[in-house]
Amino acid sequence: MLFLVRMDVYVPHDLPAEQANEIKAREKAYSQDLQRDGRWPHLWRVVGEYANYSIFDVASNDELHQLLQGLPLFPFMKISVTPLAKHPSAI
Amino acid sequence: MLFLVRMDVYVPHDLPAEQANEIKAREKAYSQDLQRDGRWPHLWRVVGEYANYSIFDVASNDELHQLLQGLPLFPFMKISVTPLAKHPSAI
Amino acid sequence: MLFLVRMDVYVPHDLPAEQANEIKAREKAYSQDLQRDGRWPHLWRVVGEYANYSIFDVASNDELHQLLQGLPLFPFMKISVTPLAKHPSAI
Amino acid sequence: MLFLVRMDVYVPHDLPAEQANEIKAREKAYSQDLQRDGRWPHLWRVVGEYANYSIFDVASNDELHQLLQGLPLFPFMKISVTPLAKHPSAI
Amino acid sequence: MLFLVRMDVYVPHDLPAEQANEIKAREKAYSQDLQRDGRWPHLWRVVGEYANYSIFDVASNDELHQLLQGLPLFPFMKISVTPLAKHPSAI
Amino acid sequence: MLFLVRMDVYVPHDLPAEQANEIKAREKAYSQDLQRDGRWPHLWRVVGEYANYSIFDVASNDELHQLLQGLPLFPFMKISVTPLAKHPSAI
Amino acid sequence: MLFLVRMDVYVPHDLPAEQANEIKAREKAYSQDLQRDGRWPHLWRVVGEYANYSIFDVASNDELHQLLQGLPLFPFMKISVTPLAKHPSAI
Amino acid sequence: MLFLVRMDVYVPHDLPAEQANEIKAREKAYSQDLQRDGRWPHLWRVVGEYANYSIFDVASNDELHQLLQGLPLFPFMKISVTPLAKHPSAI
Amino acid sequence: MLFLVRMDVYVPHDLPAEQANEIKAREKAYSQDLQRDGRWPHLWRVVGEYANYSIFDVASNDELHQLLQGLPLFPFMKISVTPLAKHPSAI
Amino acid sequence: MLFLVRMDVYVPHDLPAEQANEIKAREKAYSQDLQRDGRWPHLWRVVGEYANYSIFDVASNDELHQLLQGLPLFPFMKISVTPLAKHPSAI
């Protein structure tokens, strides 16, 4: 089951750089684990923004929420989720 | 070069059904040709809406505009385009 | 799997009353069938508006889209869908 | 009398973790008391967001405001309230 | 129980004048009946707009929806409802 | 001359509690003085929000601005003002 | 007492040209009468739009509404009104 | 003096095709005259939309309004104008 | 050449009062100089807001930007600029 | 390939002035390098705002993102990107 997810990152400028970097490193590892196991099949940068559009492939709403809530950057992101369905013209 | 495109369709209710159906049939064929030649790699329905999110893979902005403007439903759609780039965490 | 759905109805004022009434009668029957089979467990009117908030309980995004797209008033509605998950404080 | 309530939580990142956790623990207990006494019959997480949609069942606007204002997280939330009525097609 | 209600009227310009006037005459009578029986205690024109802000005093959400839905101009209005509570500084 | 005024209060979480309480106490006294002299005839809480809708009855725009600017919470509020006129259907 | 007023004109494209021209001629005369008597001291075109920003100088909200509602183009305009006060730095 | 101008075209679907084509032909000629005389130095299509971003180089606000108001498609466009100034980092 | 300018002031609550007062004093002097030399012919307070609407009369976009950028409160303001033209009905 | 880019700068008021100035100096040098090599052909100030509209001429979305992400002010800017295509009426 597919979902389009947009994530906008807002790291406060007074967060210590060391702490920010540690969070971003964990975020990268977390994201790559999910890409490898097939649940995060697409991850694209939005040009000019500290943001991404992603496709998630999960079995349920609950699974998607668990994945997103577990993102190390979750407290510093605005996330919006759009459920997708099969398009009748898709081949 | 990838772009995320959202298309919302607004067919006026006083458009004759026959004319609407003919346009939609041409839209489907046009879309499937582009899917087959690789320039429209993803096409998803937005759940609950007469709308889709799509990924286009084209060589230039001009090529993308030619493809979109050629959609038979183009006069009845609101389209928004987001340019995408490679994400540093994408594998 | 639960979804919150908001539907806003816009019936054009130049739609013949007879046709509008026939559509609304079919909408009511369609809605009550889904309520009875458990897939549309809640349906509430938004006070002061020709709109409703509903809860749908379905197995997938595709199933939800099929249900919504089949609504007789679908061509005359603006629909927005919010996927819901279990809340950690819910009992 | 039913109301749909959406709560979005914004905990400032410079609030000490201990204080934040203490508030969240009180929030959970407060919420579960109201769920048990029937005035907060539904509580759902919005997928991907630190937010919930809830249904409240109260006798008056004043009662609802007292309940919401008493939430331990109230100073850190944006809340919006939609009054609901019986839908003529609801069974 | 008090509610603030804003009504914006959009009468289509191709509605025959006679029909529009008949609806407005019924609207006025309907409104004055409710003002007299105490359920519509305030009705103000928004300066420069074909719109009003009103206060309704009703026993329930359902009663408010019945009153608003019964407005002869209901099909030509956008209505938004804000539930009000007693303010702790109100005398 | 009547005006509908909406006030949304945003007290910064790092304002010392003592200072906040002192401002709120002065706000309450200020508000009740104006209610008693007839220039602030209605004051309602918006359900679920740290906000109010109020009716002011003043002789001029300048008088209204002086009253609002004098509110002890003025630096911590977003205020919007809607001028009201007599409605032709008001009794 | 001063008010800033913005008027956006939307003349439906299927209004007969003769009727539109007659309304615009009356609008011009109406506007110039009010400019001459001092109640409409400023009238500016918004560059690139069929819209104006105006200053009105009236004795009350009711007087302003009467003037605006009397505009021959009133049924085809969206109007927004901002009450103005003396600025402490104005000379 | 430079201005960024965005024009969104909305041709009603019930405008006869012949009339629409005649207007568009005049629009093209009008636009090219202004491009040649240097007052419309840039004209770009917004990808995927029936819209353009343009740069105008004119001596005054009045001159810009005259040029825009004279566009044959003016009655069918939404136009927004942003005044531009020299940037201190521009070379 | 006239421009309508709206300025909304947001002074951070943790700016020392002395510093804020010094900036506001310079702002007042700066504003009154421009009012006296005719380039800032109108300055009005928006009722209920820490904001103003102003009319500027300048020779070019560059001149306007220089004036606005020089405002002592410029770093603490959101400014929006609307170019104005002569209205055909203005007398 | 052309893109219209709008950049809005928000430098936090508690960023030390020395640090802010150092970033702005690097921003200016970075911007002028790109203007000289032809990839940033236009850079305009938005009148009255700490913002610019720019035209970028790049070979791909990825190249544009690299350029924008490399801006020294990138962490303090909101950037929006609009892809542009050749306009059929452009000469």
TrEMBL record, chains A, B, C, D, E, F, G, H, I, J:
Pathway: Aromatic compound metabolism; beta-ketoadipate pathway; 5-oxo-4,5-dihydro-2-furylacetate from catechol: step 3/3
Entries under Gene3D superfamilies matching the protein: Dimeric alpha+beta barrel
EC code: 5.3.3.4
Any one biological process term the GO annotation gives: beta-ketoadipate pathway
Key words, A-Z: Aromatic hydrocarbons catabolism, Isomerase
Pfam families xref list: MIase
Keyword Isomerase: yes
GO molecular function: muconolactone delta-isomerase activity
Catalysis: reaction(s): (S)-muconolactone = (4,5-dihydro-5-oxofuran-2-yl)-acetate
Domain Muconolactone isomerase stretches: 1-89
Family: Belongs to the muconolactone Delta-isomerase family.
Subunit structure: Homodecamer.
Protein name (database record): Muconolactone Delta-isomerase
Species of origin: Acidovorax soli
Organism placement in taxonomy: Bacteria, Pseudomonadati, Pseudomonadota, Betaproteobacteria, Burkholderiales
